[in-house]
Amino acid sequence: MAEYYLEFSQVLPHLTDEEFDWLTQQLEVVHVIDGREVAADSMPAGLDPEQAEWSGYRFYRDYEDDLPDTEDAGFCFELIEGEDSDFGRHLWVYAEDHGDLGPLAHLVQKFLRRFRPDTSWSVAYASTCSKPRVDSFGGGAVFVTADEIKFDSSWDFIEREAAAFVARRACALPSNQSS
Q1: Per-residue CA distances from 62 to 46, 57, 83, 117, 171 (Å)
Q2: DSSP class of residue 43?
Q3: Which of 18, 21, 31, 113 has its CA 20 to 30 A from that of 91?
Q4: Which pLDDT band holds residue 102 (cuts at 50, 70, 90)?
Q5: CB of 109 within 8 A of CB of 146?
Q6: Whole-angstrom Cα Rg for the chain
Q7: Which residues contact 153 (CB under 8 A, 6 or more apart)?
Q8: How far is the C-alpha of 158 from the C-alpha of 105, rounded, in Å?
Q9: What is the DSSP annotation of 117-176?
Q10: Contacts for 78 with CB less than 8 Å, ≥ 6 apart
């Protein structure tokens, strides 16, 4: 049986104190109980997380697509305090096997809207397989701004180029030839 992977690694660099704190809050698991948001790691006595109306990472509260398992962000992350790297204080996001780029793009877009509306962020990804299966390898990229999120994959690129090739060939043929 083959295993399929989606892998990536990228940073959100040079975070200010306010940006770092905001990301820390967004990447916190919370429970909504009686309309009140409670951090999972500081649940007051008498409140039962099993009674929660909603549970998950805070940044998912306004996510409109299907939620992945709320115990999983859809990607791995580390908030790095060290100022001595090329990235300064930063958020490192990555997936070693099964990443979900939709939630990550959502989080980054929220960040850009709030803190850096005139900038962009991108991540490239690899889609691989543990066996050499045809059409099981590729990749792509996600480009995020405060206003939009764009996904493109190697498969979409190939499809667009093939359609353009067919169209160019059709235009180049004399009118009495069909192929």
Answers
A1: 27, 10, 31, 19, 47
A2: P
A3: 31
A4: very high
A5: yes
A6: 21
A7: 127, 138, 139, 140
A8: 23
A9: TT--EEEEEEEEESS--TT--EEEEEEE-SS-EEEEEHHHHHHHHHHHHHHHHHHHS-TT
A10: 91, 92
- Mean pLDDT in the chain? 90
Question: Could you tell me if 89 and 82 are in contact, meaning their C-beta atoms sit under 8 angstroms apart?
Answer: yes
Instruction: Find the length of the chain.
Output: 179
- Please check the confidence at residue 14 and state whether its pLDDT lies above 90: yes
Q: Count the neighbouring beta carbons within 10 Å of the beta carbon of residue 7.
A: 15
CA distance 48 to 34: 11
| Nearest C-alpha neighbor of 34 from the set 24, 46, 42, 25 | 46
Determine the Cα–Cα distance for residues 160 and 166; give it in Å rounded to an integer. 10
The structure tokens listed for 110 are 């929220």
| Low-confidence winner among 8-17, 28-37, 46-55, 133-142 (lowest mean pLDDT) | 46-55
Tokens of 118: 């005139």
Q: How far apart are CA 93 and CA 74, in angstroms?
A: 10
